[in-house]
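cron nightly-structures :: item 1 of 1
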Amino acid sequence: MSPDRLEIVRSYRNLYRHALRAVQYSSPARYTLKSHLRLAYRSNGAEAFNSTRIGNTLLFLQHAAEERGLEHRMLKSLLHVWWWQAQPRVCANSLPTASSQARSEIGSSAFGHFNVTVRLLNESMQLCLPERGLNPQAIRELDHWKQVQFFGGHSQSHA
């Protein structure tokens, strides 16, 4: 059953309201958050709507707003990286000796790993934090990490 328009708008407003409380309405974080949340709701259709993930994300944001614990630091770090992702010229100028092609490769590689980490966080905690688009290499890496057994490394048979 697909959600109706009112339920989608209500979830967007709840997520935005809880996120603003979590970042304490700080100036750069609120605008970065708003742009990512808008992009996520505009790019995903109604079939991507999942009420349990939205509920878990609301709880995550509520805990981030209540105390400066792990959730608050995670959200702060996410917003910090998202802000730098939106500033491509500033990031490119921070590597003055590298060529423009090397700069773009370094930036896409670093942000690609970050995007994979956000996607894995969403999957493990059943959250719906906004993600940037992943490049094909990052999707292959994500599939690789899904196959790895985290407590024992790669599965090996001992004979």
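cron nightly-structures :: done
The CA atoms of residues 92 and 100 lie 8 Å apart.
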